[in-house]
Amino acid sequence: MRDFLSERIHGIDTSEIRKVFDLAAKIKDPLNLSIGQPDFPVPQPVKDAMIQAISDNRSGYTPTAGLIQLREAVSEFLKPKIGYEAKPENIIVSTGVASILFLLFQTVIGKGDAVLLIDPYFMIYPALIKYHEGRQYTIPEHFGKAEVDVLREQLKRDGVKLKLIMFASPSNPTGKILKRDQLQLLSDIAAENDAIIASDEIYAAMDYEKTHVSMASVDAERTVTLNGFSKSHAMTGLRVGYLAAPERFAPVVQKMVTLQQYTMVCSPHVMQWAAITALKTPIEAELALMKKRRDLVYGILSKVTKLPYPDGAFYVYPDIPIDSAEFVTKAIERRLLLVPGYIFSANRKSIRISYATREEILEEGAHIFCKMVTEYS
After folding, report:
1. Can you give the residue ranges of every domain in the chain?
2. How far is Cα 342 from Cα 337, in angstroms, rounded to an integer?
3. How confident is the model at residue 302 (pLDDT cuts 50, 70, 90)?
4. Residue 111 DSSP label
5. N-terminal to C-terminal alpha carbon distance within the chain
6. 312: DSSP letter
7. Exposure winner among 151, 180, 227, 314, fewest CB in 10 A?
8. Cα three-residue angle 303-315-332, rounded to 5 degrees
9. Arithmetic mean of pLDDT over the chain
């Protein structure tokens, strides 16, 4: 039978997270600690803005780059965080950060282009590198000058220059927030390679000790900032994300907009109006709830295993004594749904646990996890 699939698509498989979602539908009363989605509702002011937009018949196409009102609001929102005013014409709105990532990689990454990731990394990043036939380099999340120097030597030995540095802070899967001195090291290596820095800040609002530093405040000239509303305002299925760039990368943004004309077309009209309201809607109560859950889960897990302290987001990433694929399979037998660490890292002995769920589920799931760690140690 003829294989109608293109050569490049063979390298892309269904994500392990989606496989876990599918399993959850088949298990009776699962303890689902896999899902990267807030369990609180969309804030009422944001819902009201959606309803008003529907009532006002705002259902047609928007400009491809996004509503000018939203791009102006994003510019104002980012200014105190990144230290400069991103022009609305250098901002693109799309159907979530995942779509922004696809547009960015399609626009700037070609065969053989070198991309730096911080390990562990969000699973979409290496998939996009592979799809676009790029070359992946990594440094560990705890990196300092020594690790960056090793990277320099590796790049020199391979005779390549980085074209893109891609990371999320706070991190998915660890919740770690990169420190300013680490951001400066990334700025230095970007300057040496004349690379773009893509700072994925989708979890920036989930910053429990207020330690997050936006990469663009360290290197405004080379940083494009990605963010959205899925995690902060529980708008996961409503699909609004954006990228803001300095003037230097205006041609990149314009090519992304052109590509969007032929792909996503535009983010949902109604949801863009809701996003304007979301930018002005605080989430203190939701943050307090998530912080309480973080402290609960970290307190239980840290007694039996090592894990990075989660500064933000809503994940923990504990070590386990056996391969993460085997651990996840055995956990399913106990109704516990987790995400294997190997999809985020070359290290196969970690697990991602989401604490974006009710405390009684977290406690039961965490105790099952701890029992398994003890059993398999």
Report:
1. 8-42+283-376, 59-278
2. 15
3. very high
4. T
5. 48
6. B
7. 180
8. 80
9. 95
Instruction: Please return the burial class of 245, using the count of CB atoms within 10 Å of its CB with bins 0-12, 13-18 and 19+.
Output: buried
Q: What is the arithmetic mean of pLDDT over 284-296?
A: 97
H-assigned helices in 42-144: 44-55, 68-82, 97-108, 124-131
CA angle (81, 173, 134) in 5-degree steps:
85
CATH H-level, domain 8-42+283-376: superfamily: Aspartate Aminotransferase, domain 1 (3.90.1150.10)
What is the spatial distance between Cα 88 and Cα 244, in angstroms, rounded to a whole number? 8
CB atoms within 10 A of CB 128: 21
Residue type at 239 in one-letter notation: R
Dist. CA 348–CA 325, nearest whole Å = 8
**Which helix (H) or strand (E) element contains residue 67?**
none
DSSP 199: E
C-alpha–C-alpha distance, residues 255 and 267, integer Å: 17
Measured CA to CA, the distance from residue 225 to residue 216 in angstroms comes to: 7
Of the candidates 358, 321, 353, the residue with the CA atom closest to the CA atom of residue 340: 353
Residue with tokens 């539908």: 25
Kindly list the distances between the CA atom of residue 339 and the CA atoms of 17, 38, 263, 320, 359, in Å, as whole numbers in the listed order. Answer: 6, 16, 30, 12, 19
Residues 6+ positions from 34 with CB-CB distance below 8 Å: 17, 20, 21, 24, 337, 338, 339, 352, 354
Q: Is the pLDDT of residue 12 over 80?
A: no
State how far the Cα of 237 lies from the Cα of 263, in Å rounded to an integer: 18
Tokens at 288, concatenated: 């307090």
The CATH classification of domain 59-278, taken from the options 3.40.50.720, 3.30.300.30, 3.40.980.10, 3.40.640.10 = 3.40.640.10
Q: CA nearest 118: which of 141, 96, 100?
A: 141
Two domains, one topology: 8-42+283-376 and 59-278:
no
Cβ(96)–Cβ(241) under 8 Å? yes
Average pLDDT (58-64) is 97
Which region, left, alpha or beta, applies to residue 83 given φ > 0 means left and ψ of -120 to 50 means alpha? left
**pTM greater than the 0.85 cutoff:** yes
